[in-house]
Amino acid sequence: MTSVTNGGGIEETVRGYYNAAIDAYSVMMPQDAWHHGDERAHEAGLSSEEAALDMQRQLVAAAGITADDLVLDFGSGVGGAVVTMAEMTGARFIGISNNDALTAKAQRLAAARGLADKAFFHSVGDTEYRTLGAWPDGAFAAITYQESVVHLPDKQAFFNAAFRVLRPGGTLAAVDWIQRPWGEYRSPEQIDAVMSEVNRAFCIPYHATVEQYRDMLASAGFTVREAIDLFPSGPCWGSTPEDEREKWLAYEGDRNDLFHDGKVALDAARAAGVFSVAKLVATKPA
Known about the structure:
- It is built from ten helices and seven strands.
- The protein is globular.
């Protein structure tokens, strides 16, 4: 499969964002997994990288992934989570994204860690997420993703497609960005006043709430086992500790203005409490 440009939509904008983000994120987040853990991991004193690894363990456990399984990871990025989950389980993973540079870096990582026979990476067209048409019904034992569906304008279409390509009894296990009412920010308009800059900076069409994700999964046919806010007791600083702020703001690589603005916007949303991260676990009825 090769990546396809499909007419300048938000999906193409996301692809362009990550062309610049590959180098920037490698400086700011040198680990290979670019996603959150949960509040308990941070309270236990784990680093951002350790918390991300703990979350990968949670996802493979929730999905019941075994060595005999074939698993789809959507929005696999530079491949760190996929390679690690393949190491943890012995399962075969197929990671997909719409960005050839991310795919190439993920393939190199799998080869460097001796897992090229377990972790496979492919580029797909910008709108392929709507159908996952390259795979037949029931192709996968499980589906995982880490903070990628937030970028999709048609999130419901993805969940419908995921349901189709999961075998009966298979599970989708994921983490994703959400927005929520918090403190003085209660109405959609108040929340949007904070989150709109996050959406702009990170090429996100909209943030769903936990409840909206639960409804979308149920609408697709899933039995929802978990749809929870991972930071229920306070602001979600998660993967960007305060002591890393200056590293982001001092970055001088390609499109540094984009990453400076993104850091400022996301910190404001975290501080306001309206940004958080959800864990989603849903099973296709047997």
